[in-house]
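Q: Hi! First time asking for a complex rather than a single chain. Here are the components, and I think there are four in total. Is that enough to go on?
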Amino acid sequence: MNMSKIAFVGLGNMGGPMAANLVRAGHEVYVFYLSEAALKQAVDAGAIAAPSAKEAAKGADIMITMLPAGIQVTSVLVTGDALLDEIAKSCLVIDCSTIDAGSARELSKAAADRGIEFVDAPVSGGTAGAAAGTLAFMVGGSTDGFAKAQPILACMGKNIFHAGDAGAGQVAKACNNMLLAIHMAGTAEALNMGVNNGLDPKVLSEIMLNSSGRNWSLEMYNPVPGVQKAVPSSNDYQGGFMIDLMCKDLGLAMDASQASRSPVPMGSAARGLFNLHQSQGNGVLDFSSVYKLYQKR
Amino acid sequence: MNMSKIAFVGLGNMGGPMAANLVRAGHEVYVFYLSEAALKQAVDAGAIAAPSAKEAAKGADIMITMLPAGIQVTSVLVTGDALLDEIAKSCLVIDCSTIDAGSARELSKAAADRGIEFVDAPVSGGTAGAAAGTLAFMVGGSTDGFAKAQPILACMGKNIFHAGDAGAGQVAKACNNMLLAIHMAGTAEALNMGVNNGLDPKVLSEIMLNSSGRNWSLEMYNPVPGVQKAVPSSNDYQGGFMIDLMCKDLGLAMDASQASRSPVPMGSAARGLFNLHQSQGNGVLDFSSVYKLYQKR
Amino acid sequence: MNMSKIAFVGLGNMGGPMAANLVRAGHEVYVFYLSEAALKQAVDAGAIAAPSAKEAAKGADIMITMLPAGIQVTSVLVTGDALLDEIAKSCLVIDCSTIDAGSARELSKAAADRGIEFVDAPVSGGTAGAAAGTLAFMVGGSTDGFAKAQPILACMGKNIFHAGDAGAGQVAKACNNMLLAIHMAGTAEALNMGVNNGLDPKVLSEIMLNSSGRNWSLEMYNPVPGVQKAVPSSNDYQGGFMIDLMCKDLGLAMDASQASRSPVPMGSAARGLFNLHQSQGNGVLDFSSVYKLYQKR
Amino acid sequence: MNMSKIAFVGLGNMGGPMAANLVRAGHEVYVFYLSEAALKQAVDAGAIAAPSAKEAAKGADIMITMLPAGIQVTSVLVTGDALLDEIAKSCLVIDCSTIDAGSARELSKAAADRGIEFVDAPVSGGTAGAAAGTLAFMVGGSTDGFAKAQPILACMGKNIFHAGDAGAGQVAKACNNMLLAIHMAGTAEALNMGVNNGLDPKVLSEIMLNSSGRNWSLEMYNPVPGVQKAVPSSNDYQGGFMIDLMCKDLGLAMDASQASRSPVPMGSAARGLFNLHQSQGNGVLDFSSVYKLYQKR
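A: Yes, that's all I need. Here is the structure of the assembled complex.
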């Protein structure tokens, strides 16, 4: 693999460790972010701080954005800093943010209009995966764009999937996380009904794991405290994937369903439950805490 | 293992092959059922036809019932044939029917009142599992009852779980099948949204299988025609587990939720969808055909 | 109207004042119930206490049952006291209990088998309506049965509807109360979203009352404290129609949907919410308190 | 009332008759729209065609927009034609489009930044109400803005509500139409369950109208063919309020819920059903046709 000059914009809980892994892989990484503390941490990890997004992007081979929502990515690339007008045509833009598919498609088009390759590459795996370099990337873009992005993404993650054309990465993530929300809520609900009927949640979990009820939430992330070690439910639902973020992702799934006229009654039901739980003051707990919504008081 | 004299009442699509497997294992199996054809098939497999349930039960070490609903099991054991008043105290009663947990608990009590051991042991695995002897059994009853039932059930199945006390087998099955309905509907819904956005269902399935969306429906029973071979969706949704049966099981889950005051919003949402699909004339299709409910026309 | 000899079995919160209204209308009312206190209250109101249901029923022209569930009504009429075998063929049986339609149909058949007329006549209107004699009755049974029941029911209520054949009264009540649950939850949800967006719930209620959102919950029973006077929401959700009872009625609606293979996704969603709210310890509050489930904390 | 010079942009099925009613009330109405046919119709009704939105807006006292979505209104007022930079500070801008509350608030702010008064005033009442001048308007904006808009809106409608500050009109409409979707689906579901149990839908409707199930859908817009005359259900679900438009409005409700973190499980369930029905090819039918989704086939 060749060493690249990479501009990295957005150093939040995910972006910080991702940039550090790029440095570790031998790349020259220019970073920009509004938070001084985050910038300092990246510099400590070997990145080079830039005074602005524009400066970070100068001469970059690869530009990566990792920002909270579509409006910020659009601002950086098109309407605000407008970096698509600054970077070289040969620079590949990789947006790792989780945003709506519609915005991703528009950004891809805006890039193509300027002769620039753009891929959407949202991640899954959480902050632990970002630190360990074991993230999964779901990539939307041309075969060529995917081929170029693949070795870069491989410095930060383990599973790199080519989901399809522009926007397909965001669609794949919306589908996956909606399905995750559905089976997590379903798992919490089934286990709670078992417990209310006197069953031991460990025994019931074991039975369903070996039957047709098996799913990732039950297997890797049991929502009932004490059934598994080293999962958020056994740590007061601290850490993991916050209810607030799941609610954000379910909002994006609603957008995707609306834009493509796809009925999502199960995803909607799950969203209703996670939103109720969020409203009851649990936004910063891990998403498996939806189990608490069900429990008898 | 010792050879037992077994009375087997109920020779439907499941009961027939189950009785045959008991014969194959060396037991002396006395069968009774209202259908002449089913009786003949059992006799061809080596069972001995009895002229009545009462005659089948005479001198039995083990009595197995495999009937459509709680009302029939109760009739055979208590209110009609009243076999609990005919069999020896030493005879173990195993009810393999899928019925409501409340009835199972009442039957267990009625048996205990007469000094007889009763276990509820509903199965999963379908007609294919019944024929192959690879069913899973979820057993509710005393430790002693489970210990006695285990070697008998092992002649018909592979995974024999002790779910808990009386009724716990039925509760475990209701929980498992409710969760199955939830992730099947969720999987169909997520894949449909992906397809509507231009994604290849094989690619999206592969991505979600390797991500947090993974579940049994996606892995073993993909609902989109052509993604997997040898599953009902690739065979016009023929065979498999009928919508009508899933609707029955979701009704039992609603009963269990009502009796134990357990909220089941996700199970209720799934039930709504399977019922809509059933109403639209698809009761005899495999339950993965819920995918058709979602498809654009 | 002629004076009748009426046997009244079941003197709970509803039955007590109903029996008193029959006395007030000039009938001779023989009452039986297991609670001494309730019996005494009825006697104070002018009823005659009977030492058993059987004694109450002796020589009755009309027999009324007002009991918690189908199993009790069946016990009194058929399997336990078996009053259908005691009363005269000319005695009209009116069951005012809210039970499942299936049981109501079986009771009607059991009565018809003995040449006795039976109508199911569940009520709506709550304890206030029972005391004031302004209940609504939804009656299932023959035209003849309805004609005979009508003047008796008119002593206890204002609106007496003939819903259809045997069981139709119970079906009508299940449909009505399911729809009530749906629009109450929907109203609470819409008002909460308005409030979260800074709207005054009084203003928003007024707008929707004059638009297509209008419904009974919004008009007569606003779930937001302070919008209307003299409703449970403005009295800490005390009084009114308890969450526990709404959950019972939604369970009956699920039974009706299951028995008739009728999809009820909206009713199921409402049931999920009322059950969640019940699980969180609000079973004895008025059902409009579902608004609290939605509120931000 | 004084005669005003009004610019009217957007002459669709609703905008056309609304503009005509302004002409009828004596105002001087300058219209612009991309459809030649619609322009001609407006001119026939007495409006004056302008060659561009900018020309229509010249010297206007009042500017009204009636467009399909927030993006078009924003384009006309700010980013494209940018009429907020063309009109006089004294010109009141009334947006009658149904758009998301967020966009409405941004437009209000963009106007205020230029010293211009803006109100959001989405309508309900459909094309029939637009033609008859009996629309309802839900207005968001300052007391002053509402006072100025009121007499103009009164030329086109009957009920003019001041919902609150900027965006409140859109929020009120989203709440109302979500609640409408909920009780329409609930009404269809309850009536279908009654019909499946042998009840006459007219009788059941009458009972629920006189009980706590009463709601606007049941009273004004019964979804079962033949129960009421002169409603879409009795005319093959032609005319009325299209499924496609209800799905659009439910999408806006999801946006409002997301932006304000308001759980909307019932609205989500309704949206799932209307989306399923839309997917099955019924987008252009009246929204009461959701009854067909439930019917047995």
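A: The first helix of chain B runs from residue 15 to 24. Let me know if you'd like any chain examined more closely.
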